[in-house]
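May I ask you to comment on the folded chain given beneath this request?
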Amino acid sequence: MNSDLQSFIDYLWSVTADPFPRYVLKKEILQEDPTDDDINLIRASKWYKQLADEQWADGSWGRFHSMDSRIAHKQKFVSTEAALRRAHELGLPKDDPVVAKCIRLMERYIREEEAWRDYVEKHKDNGRGFIFCRPFLTAANLNLFDSENLVIKPLRNVVAETIKTAFADGCFDEVYWKQKVSEYHVPSIAHPGIAYSPMLLQNADCMDDALQRQYLSFISNADRSVLIFSFCASTSLLRTTLRAARAAADLSFLSN
């Protein structure tokens, strides 16, 4: 390992007492399998206990997408999405008991074996669009933990194929996209400028290189504000910083 990178890792190791940054460092940067001791330490931390203690029996944390004001003062996580965001930030894998329990619930949601607890948001179509979006939004969250899950693939393929057609002429065809949304063929939340779109498409071989470049170029050059929100917490920032440091170290020989 490059000595500069090793010094950086040694420094972070020496100043970080919390088990989760150490867990992320070992698992994702050093690419070492977490030991039983590592797992026991993170599950004993307050960050993990908050998730586990507030998880409901069905695997949720109450409503999936919208905040329930009746329980907001009782729970740290105001929705299942908020709890999943924490789990993702902490680097928890799909086989972690808390995550696995919620994955099984999300699979049932997508298969329409169970329904969200959320009230239907009426908007302009008396809730039809909201109901149509629910499996796609659920799949986007599930994809963060298990991109190979079979229940995701049909929904992801619908979005990827619609995006492919929308970019067929080299530029994103907003008119075509809006038409497919109005036909309830693709959900509005899968628009390239909205967070759920990359959440659903990442870690999957569903777009060729040319289409990926068009997609990313559209996002980075959009005139309007891109509605992509960050899931960064302390461990996510550590993960990103270390990856950047490793990349810089790996390329340092070019300047020598």
